[in-house]
């Protein structure tokens, strides 16, 4: 009786083995004929027997499943993603390595083409696939996250950026440089060989290697900005605090944190961080300008004027600071006019009126250089032109008034 059971069991095992090999051979033949639908059907049948396969047969199964679902690049999105997962089960298979290399090249080509066509979501998808099939190439995941941002797929970008952050991705690479003998400027080469050939040819001098800038701060900044956009301000601040501990001298992180606080309505913290950033980078006109803006918004006009003047001192062509400074100067006119209108007809009131009139004239004269500087840089600024026209009239500059009046009329007519 025992003998009969053993024979039946052996027969059963043999049947499973035969079924496995039959379905796998059917899939392999179909793939060789590029009949991927038939191969997929055979693989689906073989998958039910996966638990009973030996390791060698399993490797064959996973390879064929990947080939069938990938369909030489023609598979559906779901099938291609499943194919990638299937191939991850293989180790040190020359056939699998060849297929993986082909898939990566295809994904990169499609990702680049989509990016060039501004189809950023599609580009992100293919760059991510290139990474999933070849996770050693972490830069592909960075490309995927950047493309997702450009495509405004922020939730997708956030998950990819968080993945990069968690793996401590920096994206630092070696750059190969040399100084051009013709221009005396440092130039970057695609690879070491090209740089060395140029040095040997005498067209370049002083070869050197240098690391590229870390992308860590950019990644954390983008994570924080997406958190802020999603209304998750606490997460944004926490991410930036963590990043600043790792990069205490990174001004970009400091500015990003300041902007997060500004969006949260915490202008005091914004101003504190901006001042800290300004102390680290005292000649940064954008910082100085923004400090002027937040000071003005907080009602501290004198401090705002100080920052705007400093920005103009650093960059005399910075028209945004010139416009805002002129506006702050002229804003004091309201208080003067209000006091003038409240005066009576006594001798003392008449004297005060004359004093206020002089003060008003001085305000106009103080604002004029900044408005004239704006017009010299942008002759089509209608608002600046109108303000100057009115000021010239008020201070008795008739020739300048007439010239600016003609300018305003020309701008308003569109000529």
Descriptive tags:
415 residues; mainly alpha; three-stranded antiparallel sheet; 20 helices; 3 strands; elongated; disordered N terminus
The sequence of SSEs as H and E is HHHHHHHHEEHEHHHHHHHHHHH
How many individual β-strands?
A: 3
What is the arithmetic mean of pLDDT? 85
| Helix segment tally | 20
The helix content, as a percent range, equals over 70%
User: How would you name the oligomeric state of the polypeptide chains in this document?
Assistant: single chain
Shape: elongated
Topology:
Elements: H1 2-32, H2 36-47, H3 55-70, H4 77-87, H5 94-116, H6 120-133, H7 139-150, H8 154-166, E1 174-180, E2 186-189, H9 192-201, E3 204-211, H10 216-229, H11 233-246, H12 251-263, H13 267-280, H14 285-297, H15 301-314, H16 319-331, H17 333-341, H18 347-377, H19 382-394, H20 398-413
Antiparallel strand pairs: 1-2, 1-3
Helix pairs in contact: 1-2, 1-3, 2-3, 3-4, 5-6, 6-7, 7-8, 8-10, 10-11, 10-12, 11-12, 12-13, 13-14, 14-15, 14-16, 15-16, 16-18, 17-18, 18-19, 19-20
